[in-house]
């Protein structure tokens, strides 16, 4: 029905083209509006972690809640590094200060910018100000940098007597600012300083007892020399303040001396801060040679945008040109926003450059294949329209492309090219076949006729292939990760679109685009034809050896899979890229840019968290627990489990622990009250370790990891360790890094699982397609080997499975299934024509190998261009896709034909094509006791043959090896001697004939021709062996029907023999002796050997389905009922069957006597009926034991022990064939 619909639809090519082009215009608009930026025109790619975070769990909502409560964790770190490894000095800090001001003024979406110039002193004379503030004139804390710039400015102006009005205004403004600051008391200054702090660097002036303890501690602190040792701060009269008045500066000072003095102060301060826990690793390196800016962004901002990244880059270039320090200054910046921007940009570049080059290379290969520029447009347009429709649907739905869904394009290119190339090759093949079959008088076939013939051949296999491939991809839709869901959905959409275009757009285009004809195999002198002939020779000689070779390769690959690892590595970009160099510098000099947020909550149901004073989060117990956790992570007390995580370096542990420990000079005797006061102060002005509702405590870990495996290993250890150290709190974690690592690993693992799930789905479909689960395994096996080789190669090469590379297996599976189904569909056609599975497989190879080879080479050449990408993941993706496709081609051209040659396959479309019903099979001898389904499968294991009226089937004297069943029409059996024909019998529909040729390869005793238009079912040994292996129950019933047929023939022959009346009594003994010699000549196998080969286990089972009879010597077998379809075996003793005059007479007739012993089948027992028609009588000449099998019992045996039944009944057929052959010879001799 579907084929008829497609062929009728293609009768309107213009309408098809009009509809497709109209819909394509609509999808073009949807793709343009939905996937491209309206301002820049660039393709929008969502490179953030959000598409990879599971939506259904609470992890994503917790991620959003934490970002709302504590701010975004996405930061950009800008490092100013002294290449000579000297501590940063005045010029570096001036550059840092100016860069910070520019960043705050020009970069959009900034929340805070933190540097070493912003961290406030907790106490002292300049408490609340940075460590680079010192007490100045009028007891006002002045920035050393501001003072230096002011002094230099004053020197520059000293040569001028008159001060301009603008300078006076600036001076007045500066004085006013300083005066306003001087009015505030120490506590207000501290609070102001904390407001400018960043949450990673908590430091503030605590009240009451904590404040006093901190002051006491600071009296002995080495940081005390950073501030001046003058009197305590007092309220100043702002109107009289003149601390920045140029008239008070020493006129004798030179710029060099001012610079030297300030440099000394700066170096002294920097030196004292190197080991400060709030500086080290964040804003200052351990050796003080690198200072940093940490930029945090608002949650709603897009720091990864091209505009933001361009502004940052321009600012860095500007400040890199500082003449004072340009020779030693190296500015680097890193962070997730930069990596996201870089990845998006490189992907767009690959899409804009490599994808068109890949398509161009594919076009060149197709041009070589089809030798026509016009013909190339057909596959090119099918692929492009498939991509366009898929992109349009994505834009129409409103989804964005991400790093996973970008794989939809290569998937569509792969599958689409394969579909349409096979269609075009079939079109050329049909053109050639129609041309060869056409007689000289017949007109040339029209294009619509060729298209119809092509569609009849390819519609079902192409559609089945599409359904099978979609089934594999649609399994991804159940994933909870949005990116994976979209990959499965939109890949399926693309494949369905390609299937539709292959069956509609491609035929419609062929009405207007001429396809060149291909040469016949006899004419083909080219390299390809020579290669195909060489492969065919190898397959003919070494098919089993090739199967074993591939099985060994698969086993070796499977062993390599033991070394597989899943790790979404951070090594996305090449080592020589500036991004990686900057990242390494920052990670080596400061801290890693990976972060993990640890979240703590009070146990559910705890009433204490309602009271701030009794909140479990705000207790000394919690602080001590965090301290133990920190010591465990930094391995303070010796190596811990952390040391076992490869590729992980923990740099910072941002928590209240370091702040309290630093300013209290330790955590000894810490009280709950001190902790409560600490959190109260930080909740007002400082970095927030507690949420607003004080129900969540956050600790941030900064680290360096080489991929998701290390990240997740730390997570797993924390899940075990934290409850041990903080049992009174509930622990969870969040952060884009860990969630994206989880999702990346889930995607990679999910892809692996989905591939195996897809294999299961494909197996089910192939099993239904080939009507046997065993054949489903065989048909699937080439694809399994491809997958094993792919994953095994990754294991042996120690390449971890990441998000991108895991998609390759799905591509390979899609191509592999496509090649398998197309090969088998062509094989079926050739098998029906040649009636030999080996020859059919060899003939199929060059037909399907040509499109398989061209499509694979084209695709591999296209994908290998991805090796030029700057992204390592893209390089691996392109390289491994190309290699996997080539492996798939090799398997499909060697392993698949070899398997088919050794097994044989039937398909569901042949099954559906058989118009069998119960009435039909009731009239066919061979199908008795079978269901319609079983009769169809039995028929499909054989070969159909159509004869025209008068068509000769075989001639007398031919050596036969086939049996025939008449499905339609009739066959005349005749003898021809001396030109005179004698018709013997006319066999009608349902009759079986030629069975002796099948089992004994005997000479045909007569000729056979079609009396009318006739359709036959041809059965040979090539059919029966696969049937026994794959469907033993059906084989058993078929053998049972053959045995009944042979037993009737044996009875008929014996009765004709006994009807002979010209016996001479004197020659009877001689004839009987000759018959014994004849039996020895004609028997192909001894009965006792058949019985012995069954084995003791099977013989015992057989006895349970039989009835045993014991007969004493000299007794007749009269008590054994002889029903139609029964078979009687002698297991011990001797039985003689003698002809009689009549059933009422005991006298011996002048005829024959048969003696059976040694586990033989008493075929002649059919003559011993219990009525007047009996022509023989059976007598036991020794004490004998017999085993009788009733037809009902044999059918039960076929149902319950199908393999045993198939073998046993085949043996019965062989015994009856021997007995019938002997009977025929006897009849001929008389």
Automatic annotation (TrEMBL):
- Which subcellular locations apply to this protein? Cell membrane
Compositionally skewed regions (Polar residues) per UniProt: 231-256
Provide the Gene Ontology terms for cellular component: plasma membrane
Main location as per UniProt: membrane
> Where does this protein have compositionally biased stretches of type Acidic residues?
188-228
Any Pfam family hit: cNMP_binding
Q: Which CDD domains match?
A: CAP_ED
Membrane protein topology class: Multi-pass membrane protein
* Entry keyword set: Cell membrane, Membrane, Transmembrane, Transmembrane helix
Q: Which SMART domains match?
A: cNMP (SM00100)
Q: Where is the SSD domain?
A: 380-512, 775-902
Region entry Disordered, spans: 188-261
What the entry lists under Gene3D superfamilies is as follows:
Jelly Rolls (2.60.120.10), Multidrug efflux transporter AcrB transmembrane domain (1.20.1640.10)
The record's SUPFAM superfamilies line, in alphabetical order, gives: cAMP-binding domain-like, Multidrug efflux transporter AcrB transmembrane domain
Report the transmembrane regions from the record: 353-370, 377-397, 458-481, 487-510, 546-566, 752-771, 778-797, 803-824, 845-867, 873-891
The name under which this protein is listed is Cyclic nucleotide-binding domain-containing protein
């Amino acid at each position: 029905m579907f084929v008829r619909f497609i062929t009728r639809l293609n009768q309107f090519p213009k309408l098809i083209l009009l509809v497709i082009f109209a819909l394509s215009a609509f999808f073009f608009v949807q793709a343009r509006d939905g996937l491209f930026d309206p301002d820049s025109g660039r393709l929008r790619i969502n490179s953030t972690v959000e598409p990879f975070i599971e939506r259904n769990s609470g992890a994503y909502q917790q991620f959003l809640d934490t970002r709302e409560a504590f701010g975004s964790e996405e930061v950009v770190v800008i490092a100013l590094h002294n290449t000579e490894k000297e501590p940063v000095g005045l010029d570096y800090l001036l550059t840092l200060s100016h860069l910070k001001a520019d960043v705050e003024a020009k970069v959009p979406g900034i929340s805070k910018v933190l540097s070493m110039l912003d961290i406030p002193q907790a106490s002292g004379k300049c408490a609340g100000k940075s460590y680079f503030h010192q007490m100045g004139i009028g007891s006002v804390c002045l920035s050393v940098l501001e003072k230096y710039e002011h002094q230099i400015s004053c020197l520059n102006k000293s040569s001028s007597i008159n001060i301009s009005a603008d300078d006076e205004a600036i001076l007045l403004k500066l004085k006013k600012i300083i005066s306003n600051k001087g009015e505030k008391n120490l506590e207000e200054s501290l609070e102001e300083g904390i407001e400018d702090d960043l949450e990673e660097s908590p430091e503030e002036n605590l009240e009451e007892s904590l404040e006093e303890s901190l002051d006491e501690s600071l009296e002995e602190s080495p940081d005390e020399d950073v501030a001046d040792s003058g009197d305590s701060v007092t309220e100043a009269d702002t109107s009289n303040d003149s601390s920045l008045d140029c008239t008070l500066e020493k006129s004798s000072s030179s710029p060099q001396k001012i610079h030297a003095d300030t440099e000394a102060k700066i170096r002294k301060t920097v030196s004292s801060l190197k080991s400060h826990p709030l500086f080290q690793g964040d804003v200052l390196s351990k050796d003080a040679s690198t200072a940093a800016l940490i930029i945090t962004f608002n949650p709603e901002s897009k720091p990864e945008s091209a505009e933001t990244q361009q502004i940052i880059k321009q600012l860095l270039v500007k400040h890199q040109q500082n003449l004072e320090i340009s020779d030693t200054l190296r500015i680097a910046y890193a962070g997730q926003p930069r990596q996201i921007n870089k990845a998006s940009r490189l992907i767009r570049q690959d899409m804009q450059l490599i994808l068109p080059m890949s398509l161009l290379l594919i076009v060149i290969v197709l041009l070589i294949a089809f030798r026509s520029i016009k013909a190339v447009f057909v596959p090119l347009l099918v692929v492009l329209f498939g991509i366009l429709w898929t992109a349009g649907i994505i834009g129409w739905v409103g989804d964005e492309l991400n790093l996973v869904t970008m794989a939809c394009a290569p998937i569509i290119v792969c599958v689409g090219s394969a579909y349409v190339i096979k269609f075009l090759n079939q079109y050329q093949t049909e053109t050639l076949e129609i041309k060869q079959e056409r007689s000289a008088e017949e007109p040339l076939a029209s294009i619509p006729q060729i298209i119809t013939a092509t569609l009849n051949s390819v519609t079902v296999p192409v559609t089945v292939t599409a359904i099978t491939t979609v089934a594999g991809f649609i399994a991804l839709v159940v994933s909870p990760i949005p990116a994976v869901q979209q990959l499965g959905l939109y890949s399926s959409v693309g494949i369905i679109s390609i299937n539709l275009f292959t069956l509609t757009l491609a035929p419609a285009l062929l009405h207007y685009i001429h396809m060149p004809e291909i040469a016949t195999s006899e004419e083909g002198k080219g390299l390809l034809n020579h290669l195909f002939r060489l492969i065919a020779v190898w397959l003919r000689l070494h098919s089993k050896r090739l199967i074993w070779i591939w099985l060994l390769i698969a086993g070796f690959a499977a062993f390599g899979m033991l070394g597989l690892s899943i790790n979404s590595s951070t090594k996305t970009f090449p080592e020589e890229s500036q991004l990686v160099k900057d990242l390494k510098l920052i990670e080596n000099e400061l801290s890693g840019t990976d972060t993990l947020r640890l979240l703590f909550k009070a146990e559910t149901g705890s009433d204490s968290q309602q009271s701030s004073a009794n909140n479990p989060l705000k207790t000394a117990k919690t602080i001590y627990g965090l301290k133990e956790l920190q010591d465990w992570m930094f391995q303070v007390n010796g190596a811990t489990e952390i040391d076992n995580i490869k590729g992980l370096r923990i740099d910072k542990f941002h928590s209240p622990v370091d702040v309290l420990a630093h300013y209290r000079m330790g955590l000894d005797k810490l009280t709950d009250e001190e902790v409560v006061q600490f959190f109260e102060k930080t909740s007002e002005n400082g970095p927030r370790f507690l949420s607003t509702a004080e129900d969540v405590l956050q600790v941030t870990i900064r680290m360096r990891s080489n991929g998701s495996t290390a990240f997740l290993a730390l997570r797993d250890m924390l899940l075990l360790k934290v409850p041990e150290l903080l049992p009174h709190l509930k622990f969870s974690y969040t952060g884009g890094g860990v969630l994206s690592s989880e999702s990346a690993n889930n995607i990679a693992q999910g892809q692996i699982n989905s591939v195996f799930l897809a294999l299961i789905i494909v197996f089910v479909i192939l099993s239904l397609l080939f009507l046997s689960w065993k054949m489903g395994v065989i048909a699937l096996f080439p694809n399994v080997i491809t997958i094993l080789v792919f994953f095994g190669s990754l294991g042996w090469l120690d390449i971890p499975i990441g998000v991108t590379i895991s998609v390759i297996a799905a591509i390979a599976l899609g191509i592999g299934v496509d090649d398998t189904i197309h090969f088998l569909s062509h094989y079926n056609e050739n098998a029906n024509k040649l009636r030999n599975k080996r020859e059919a497989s060899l003939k199929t190879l060059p037909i399907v190998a040509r499109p398989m080879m061209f499509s694979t080479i084209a695709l591999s050449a296209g994908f290998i261009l991805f090796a030029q990408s700057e992204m390592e993941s893209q390089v691996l993706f392109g390289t491994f896709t190309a290699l996997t496709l080539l492996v798939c081609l090799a398997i499909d051209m060697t392993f698949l034909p070899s398997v088919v040659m050794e097994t044989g396959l039937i398909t569901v479309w042949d099954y559906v094509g058989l118009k069998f019903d119960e009435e039909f099979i009731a009239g066919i001898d061979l199908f008795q006791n079978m269901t319609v389904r079983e009769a169809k499968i039995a028929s499909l294991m054989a070969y159909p043959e159509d004869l025209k009226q008068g068509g000769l089937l075989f001639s007398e004297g031919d050596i036969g090896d086939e049996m025939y069943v008449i499905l339609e029409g009739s066959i005349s059996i005749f003898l021809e001697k001396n030109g005179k024909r004698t018709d013997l019998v006319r066999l009608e529909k349902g009759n079986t004939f030629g069975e002796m040729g099948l089992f004994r390869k005997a000479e045909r005793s007569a000729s056979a021709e079609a009396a009318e238009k006739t359709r036959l079912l041809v059965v040979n040994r090539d059919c029966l062996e696969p049937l026994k292996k794959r469907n033993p129950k059906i084989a058993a019933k078929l053998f049972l029907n053959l045995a009944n047929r042979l037993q009737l023939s044996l009875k008929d022959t014996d009765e004709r023999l006994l009807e002979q009346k010209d016996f001479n009594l004197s020659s009877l003994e001689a004839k009987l002796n000759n018959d014994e010699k004849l039996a020895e000549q004609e028997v192909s196998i001894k009965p006792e050997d058949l019985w012995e080969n069954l084995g003791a286990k099977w013989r015992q089972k057989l006895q349970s389905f039989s009835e045993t009879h014991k007969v004493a010597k000299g007794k007749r077998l009269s008590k054994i009922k002889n029903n139609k379809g029964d078979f009687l075996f002698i297991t011990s003793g001797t039985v003689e069957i003698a002809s009689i005059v009549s059933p009422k007479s005991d006298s011996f007739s002048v005829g024959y006597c048969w003696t059976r012993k040694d586990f033989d089948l008493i075929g002649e027992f059919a003559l011993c009926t219990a009525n007047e028609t009996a022509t023989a009588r059976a007598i036991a000449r020794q004490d004998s034991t017999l085993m009788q099998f009733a037809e009902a019992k044999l059918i039960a045996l076929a149902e319950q022990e199908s393999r045993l039944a198939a073998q046993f009944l085949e043996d019965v057929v062989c015994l009856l064939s021997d007995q019938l052959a002997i009977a025929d010879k006897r009849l001929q001799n008389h």
